[in-house]
């Protein structure tokens, strides 16, 4: 199988080939890694091995492996000593030229040693949705009680002015 130029230069293709960032999970279609610019402790990415741009481009086999990868990465997050993970990231040779502010911030969080209380699962499917690398990647973001003042609305808050809406409880 030959690679296109975009695949050879794609960071997540390099990751899926094992050339960057150690795997925390893998199955036949996906690999999982910890994000080196974490928003919260345990922030991880699930990346297809094949260069796919959109979740809508996944084959039937990849679709079948998608939730297996999601469950596997969640288990890896919950089994990892995250404080040790981030201390090790600060010293990784392959990360020496990357900014470390996100890692340093996560190391200072009071809930760093806690088990996640919830998860946000996301995919910025396209540039207009906020994607910065044009290779599908699912974001698995552990959430902790108190990580934001008011989590109500969740993903709806990507457009803050339209996030709040009246709810009927009947």
UniProtKB/TrEMBL annotation:
Annotated InterPro entries: Histidine_triad_HIT, HIT-like, HIT-like_sf
Domain of life, per lineage: Bacteria
GO biological process terms held by the UniProt record: nucleotide metabolic process
Ranges for domain HIT: 11-150
Pfam hit, one: HIT
Signal peptide positions (record): none
Protein name: Histidine triad (HIT) protein
Organism the protein comes from: Thiocapsa marina 5811
Listed GO MF terms: catalytic activity
């Amino acid at each position: 199988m030959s690679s296109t130029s975009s695949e050879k230069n794609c960071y997540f293709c390099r990751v899926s080939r094992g050339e960057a960032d150690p795997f925390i999970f893998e199955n036949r279609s996906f690999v999982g890694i910890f994000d080196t610019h974490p928003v919260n402790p345990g922030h991880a990415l699930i990346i297809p091995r094949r260069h796919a741009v959109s979740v809508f481009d996944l084959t039937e086999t990849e679709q079948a492996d998608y939730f297996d990868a999601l469950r596997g990465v969640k288990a890896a997050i919950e089994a990892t000593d995250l404080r040790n993970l981030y201390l090790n990231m600060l010293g990784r040779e392959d990360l020496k030229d990357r900014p470390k502010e996100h890692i340093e911030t996560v190391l200072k969080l009071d809930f760093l040693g806690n088990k996640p209380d919830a998860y946000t699962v996301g995919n910025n499917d396209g540039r207009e949705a906020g994607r910065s690398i044009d290779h599908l990647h699912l974001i698995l973001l552990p959430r902790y009680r108190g990580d934001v003042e008011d989590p109500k609305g969740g993903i709806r808050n990507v457009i803050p002015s339209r996030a709040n809406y009246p709810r009927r409880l009947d």
